[in-house]
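Sanity check

After download, print the first record. It should look like this:
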Amino acid sequence: MLLTDVRKGLGWSQAKLARTAELCQATVSQIESGRLKPYPNQLQKLANALQWTGNPEELLQNHLKEK
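Expected structure tokens:
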């Protein structure tokens, strides 16, 4: 998931992202694993925390890493 890739690219743990986005770490974990579809306000909080300038929905897409 692109969300996970962006978070890891910043060197952030799920806990740091959760604190910065003012969400529970369990919520971040469930979103990243695809077990939870975030509410629009949760997704916006994640995008803001990551300083994501694109459409927040893009963060939920699978991201294929180039080999």
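If your output differs, re-run the checksum step. Summary of this record's structure: Helices lie at 2-9, 14-21, 25-32, 40-49.
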